[in-house]
Amino acid sequence: MRHTPVPRSTRRPKDRALRVGLTGGIGSGKSTVACLLKERGAVVTSADEVARDVVSPGSDGLAAVVAEFGEGILAADGSLDRGALGRLVFSDDLRRARLEELLLPLIAAEAWARMDTVPAGQVAVYDVPLLVEGQMQDLFDLVIVVEAELELRLKRLAARGMTRDEALARIAVQATDKERRAVADVVVSNSGALEDLSAEVDRLWRTRILEPGATA
Known about the structure:
Blueprint: E1 2-3, E2 18-24, H1 30-39, E3 43-46, H2 47-54, H3 60-69, H4 82-89, H5 93-115, E4 123-127, E5 142-147, H6 150-159, H7 164-172, H8 177-181, E6 186-189, H9 194-210
Parallel strand pairs: 2-4, 2-5, 3-4, 5-6
Antiparallel strand pairs: 1-6
Main location: cytoplasm
Binding site for ATP: 27-32
Family: Belongs to the CoaE family.
């Protein structure tokens, strides 16, 4: 676990929850870190879960996406066919940008509404893949970046059913590791065993959340 020289915040806020931004590239294991933080008491809001909710059947978000990209992105039951939408937008920069323009404001509004319900004194974690792309780093008291070696990420994505080319295409449209490190307060390595990751999260929880500003 690597710390930046100057912590973003050295004290926990007293009038609200500690806001933690958690990010990492696809296949880095960010969601695993989110689960480990949840086990230690954090209240986690997942951008991916919110993104699914804002395009649920009957939602304004789904209506906007269908109006833009056509009914070919719908499954037989009227829900969003995420695979069809992904194939349509991830190879087209303009379409992907348009999709983000439609959905990111809806996702952000719903995510922050959920985080605002976390009581003062607790830890509110926002698990968000596009933290850097959305320039959200200044919204948080602490930013955690999860990293893993490229080949390991590709192996994990293959287990999700992606081809190597599909996985590389997804990685290519996200921020780079260097760009994520530039906004990180803490970088967590997830290229080893789960027990190693759990120990690293334990140290993070103790030194940067329970005792902000600690370095050991």
